[in-house]
Amino acid sequence: MISLCNGWEFDYNWSEEFARFETVAESVRLPHNVKELPLHCSSPSDYETVCGYRRIIDAPADWAGKRVFLQLDGAAHIATVFLNGKELGSHRCGYTAFRTELTEELKTGSRNELAVKLDCTENKDIPPFGFVIDYLTYGGLYREAWLDVRPENHIEDLFVYASDDEIVRCRVKTSETGGSLEVRIVSPEGETVGLYTGNERCFDIPVENAKLWDVDNPNIYSCKAVLTDGETDEKTERFGFRRAEFKADGFYLNGKKLFLRGLNRHQCYPYIGYAAPERLQRQDAYILKHELGCTAVRTSHYPQSQYFIDECDREGLPVFTEIPGWQHIGDLSWQDQAVENVREMIEQYRNHPSIVLWGVRINESQDNDPFYRRTNRLARELDPSRQTGGVRYITKSSLLEDVYTFNDFSHNGENGGVLRKYDVTPDMSKGFLISEHSGHMFPTKAFDPWLKRQQQAIRHATVLNDAMADNEHAGCFGWCMFDYATHRDFGSGDRICYHGVTDAFRNPKTAAALYASQGDESAVLETGSPMAIGDYSATEVGTVYLFTNADKVLVYRDGVLDREVSETPFKALPHGPLPFEAGVNDWGGQSAVWRFDAVKDGEVVSSVTRSPSAELHIETDLSCIALTEGDKYDASAVRIQIKDKNGCTASYAQIPLKIEAEGPVRLLGPDIVTAEGGMTGVYIGTTGEKGAGSVKISSLGFESVTVRFIVN
Ligand code: GAL
To answer: Are residues 75 and 217 in the same domain?
Structure first.
């Protein structure tokens, strides 16, 4: 496939003149967001437009006799494709890819005018629209674009799946009936380990000693198909050998029980909306697995970037993905589109070993058996290898799926963490999963007081613990990974839902430490308080939780061992938070220096100090320092945190920061930002040029920080 991300022109307002290339328009590259958005108070009026994208396609003479397709991976939300003035097709879902055949109109050996009319309005005729929605839906050609040039007879689709029985099942769809196939299975080391040659389109290929795809060793194989019918055509797909099953008592991966400790992920970013390039998509999977210790993710509430899912494949992070929608079910033609979305989701994502469950209901909608019989039937027909779920908040609803995926918002901070399975599902013999919890039950900002941030973490711990304890839940997906922009009907008045365990830039709140400490990859130690007495009523610091994956924590006050903490009330968690009573502190005494040493197997593996400190500095974390410029632009996130001399986030440092980019990098957002809760971020994109670039971050009274990039 030929990347078609560069060389586009854009107009916020579509017109016939624009489509005829008669107007002057802005040059843009994909992924593209129709307008830069503010961090706070962005709204649909920032993107609800009918806009236009256009591009010249110089078709070489040797494309004559070939079939040529345009593939747009993400066009929010209704796209119509024109070539040389002729309408060739349209697509009515902003969350799945689609292909338009250009062959008939394409003039080979010549210049062709391609135009895309894009309706970014929240059109009630298609999912997810029709009523209120708790997230912004943005606009633009916000994923990648491709040209696919194929012989007359070519491979349209290659579906490959393999359980742990070492049989690869292949279904090949070719555009014509003739032609013979040679299909190779290639191991992660690049060796051919299985081969089929023949004329069938459905066949099995046995493989010996296949290495399984699992969470620790996500072995990925390739299936390379070559079709010969005069000319040859090739298609390669990646897949894994694994058996994923939801049973009455939990989730099993390759026969081994695995509790899915996950978070829900939206696909939005500050300033750039949905338009995040490959590197940022991949980084979110990395953050979930390595920074948040997750063992699963739910792509609420729609299919997400192939790069994100591909990284979940590589990281060994099981995914629950679902069709677009939010509570509302529209009329029959709306439902037809939702069924079409099931088809597109499954056909486009079914080779990913990380996907373990299809969500085939509209998130939190009411029962509608005729509609959901259709979605379930189609899912099972298109993918016999996976089970279905569908997210509801109602109990005992009609269970046409294999797994009762339930949003359990029952925990209010005082009661038990979860509802029991028999109170929720009508069928105890099927799988049971919490698809969401917490979220709006306890919105928490990075700049809320410490006590509140600690409580958010403890609420997540309570739900997670109780879900793990009862041996009935296959997993539990917290709402949600990061704060996100939303519609006026939700959020904190500034149209942000502060439900994340990280802020919108993926900077950690206290609850992130709860998740991080469940993993064992590296030593984690975080305190639920900076131990500053002025932050608590009547100086009563009360219960402080320590989030750690060590065996115990030694607490020192002014250098003297004060106590040893090792007991947790969260017994079902791999590493429950450890409470200790810091009690009431003197108003009139000298401030204390607290040191916490986390001890594992008799050794101190991590140590943090908490004491009042006015010596603040700026710290940064980059996605990468080496960016790649080429057939698309690259980007890096720069996460920014203000820390004190102990490395504790200075969460009341709401300070302005000036951001200056130099060289072949540009800011994808404003050049003055404010740290909120001592944290913020910026996104840097490449410009088309190569060489050394830098970004300087400065603020009055701070030593400025310059981060350097190389654009290759
Ligand atoms: C759920 C919904 C999510 C989000 C969440 C907030 O009802 O499915 O999209 O709005 O509530 O807690």
So the answer is: no
DSSP 8-state symbol, 590: P
Q: Is the CB of 479 under 6 A from ligand 1?
A: yes
Concerning whether 436 is annotated as a catalytic residue, the answer is: yes
Q: Is the pLDDT of residue 585 over 80?
A: no
Mean pLDDT score of the chain, rounded to an integer? 97
Q: What is the Cα–Cα distance from 448 to 451, expressed in whole angstroms?
A: 8
Total count of domains within the chain:
5
What percent of the chain has pLDDT above 70?
100
Counting atoms of ligand 1 from 1, which one is nearest the CA of 409?
A: 12
Question: Tell me, what CATH number does 119's domain have?
Answer: 2.60.120.260
What's the Cα-to-Cα distance from 558 to each of 562, 611, 646, rounded to whole Å? 9, 10, 15
Backbone angles phi, psi at 56, to 5 degrees: -90, 140
Instruction: Based on the fold, state whether residues 411 and 498 are members of the same structural domain.
Output: yes
Last-in-domain residue among 132, 150, 168: 150
Cα separation, 319 vs 223, whole angstroms: 21
Whether 644 and 578 share a structural domain: no
From 328, 392, 479, mutation site for ligand 1 pocket: most ligand atoms within 8 A of C-beta: 479
Same structural domain, 312 and 400: yes
Residue type, 394: I
* 364 in active site: yes
Distance (Å) from CA 437 to ligand 1 centroid: 8
Nearest CA to ligand 1 atom 9: 134
Euclidean distance between CA atoms 353 and 385, whole angstroms = 11
Domain co-membership, 510 together with 533: no
Rounded average pLDDT over 685-712: 97
**pLDDT at residue 507 in the model:** 98
pLDDT at 581 over 90: yes
Same domain, 329 and 380: yes
Given a contact cutoff of 8 angstroms between Cβ atoms, the answer to whether 461 and 514 are in contact is yes
| Cβ(698)–Cβ(704) below 8 Å | yes
Per the document, the length of the chain is 712
Tell me, in angstroms, the distance from the centre of ligand 1 to residue 133's CA.
9
Closest C-alpha among 389, 390, 460 to residue 418 = 460
Instruction: Select from 96, 116, 150 the last residue of a domain.
Output: 150
| 407 C-beta closer than 6 A to ligand 1 | yes
For 488-541, write each residue's pLDDT tens digit: 999 999 999 999 999 999 999 999 999 999 999 999 999 999 999 999 999 999
Catalytic residue among 278, 340, 364, 676: 364
CB 523 within 8 A of CB 598: yes
CATH number at residue 220: 2.60.40.10
Q: Are residues 488 and 436 in the same domain?
A: yes
Q: What is the pLDDT of residues 33-60, one digit of tens each?
A: 999 999 999 999 999 999 999 999 999 9
CA dist 292 to 288, 502, 548, 702, Å?
5, 10, 13, 30
- Active-site residue identified among 291, 436, 472, 676: 436
Question: Candidates 411, 435, 436, 456: which one to mutate for ligand 1, based on the most atoms within 8 Å of Cβ?
Answer: 436
Please identify, by atom number, the ligand 1 atom nearest to the C-alpha of residue 497. Answer: 6
Among 407, 438, 487, residue to substitute to test ligand 1 (most atoms within 8 Å of Cβ): 407
Q: Is the pLDDT of residue 132 over 80?
A: yes
Question: Range of 208's domain?
Answer: 155-239
d(CA 610, CA 62): 69
Is 546 found in the same domain as 504? no
